[in-house]
Amino acid sequence: MARIAQLVVGGQPTAWSSIGLTFVDGICSVGDFSLRLDDSLEPGISSWTLSRCISDGDIDGISTNHADLTQPATPDSNTLDIVGVDHVVVFTNDLERTSSDVARVTGEPLRRIREAGDGVRQGFHRLGSVIVEIVEQKRVERTFLWGFVLTVNNLDEIVRHMGPDVLSPPRDAVQPGRRIAAFRGGVGLGTAVALMTPERQ
């Protein structure tokens, strides 16, 4: 099965370390997935690296690298008890076009479509342990990587520790029985990052 091996993010390491993510030689491992920080880039997600795909090339204009990456060992954060990455969010103005390109490159089909209301639709692909959530909004000018959600064991503890200026109050997630809290824009990550409770077993 195709999988997401890495996201490349821009910005300064201080913003990421302020939320408990430690980078060693520019790499932060989260489960079977890694973030690579390039501080020469503007804040935000600039590209992703996929492995085990059936085709090379970019996905609907998203800068896409193809490589089998070995996850380096990095120190665990004392702040975030991360289980892994739950999903990566892609914004587009055409769900069918972007989804078709994901399937063409990765070989992984569209699992379902959800009508989110107000003209917003969501489509879902699974790449390894990570869900790719494609969000269609007609006002979007180009397809881009918008953000990602980390699964953590201690959401309430993290929210209390970081405070309301850093994290939003936890709310019910779309996934039944789970809750989610998002980092505020003022943290300076330049991309949307949220924390979510694990799936109930």
Please name the defining characteristics of this protein.
mainly beta, 201 residues, globular, 13 strands, 3 helices, 2,3-Dihydroxybiphenyl 1,2-Dioxygenase, domain 1, eight-stranded mixed β-sheet, 40% strand, five-stranded mixed β-sheet
Describe the biggest sheet?
A: 8 strands, mixed
Strand content: 35-45%
What's the architecture, going by CATH?
Roll
Output mean pLDDT. Answer: 92
Describe the global form. globular
Just give the CATH class. Answer: Alpha Beta
Secondary-structure element sequence? EHEEEEEHEEEEHEEE
Fraction of residues in helices? 10-25%
The tally of beta strands, per DSSP, is: 13
Structural class: mainly beta
Named CATH topology: 2,3-Dihydroxybiphenyl 1,2-Dioxygenase, domain 1
- Summed up, the helix count is 3
Q: For the terminal residues, how far apart are their CA atoms?
A: 23 Å
Catalogue the unreliable spans. none
Give the spatial strand order of the biggest sheet. Answer: 7-8-9-6-10-13-12-11
Number of domains: 1
Gyration radius (Cα, Å) is 16 Å
CATH superfamily: 2,3-Dihydroxybiphenyl 1,2-Dioxygenase, domain 1
Task: Write a structural description.
The longest helix has 12 residues, at about 95-105. The chain has helices spanning about 15, 95-105, 155-160, and strands at about 5-10, 25-30, 35-40, 45-50, 65, 80-90, 110-115, 120-125, 130-135, 145-150, 170, 180, 190-195. About 10% of the residues lie in helices and about 40% in strands. Strands 7-8-9-6-10-13-12-11 form an eight-stranded mixed beta sheet, with helices on one face. The protein has a five-stranded mixed beta sheet with strand order 2-3-1-4-5, with no helix packed on it. It is built from three helices and 13 strands; from the N terminus they run E-H-E-E-E-E-E-H-E-E-E-E-H-E-E-E. It has a single domain (about 5-195), classed as Roll (2,3-Dihydroxybiphenyl 1,2-Dioxygenase, domain 1).
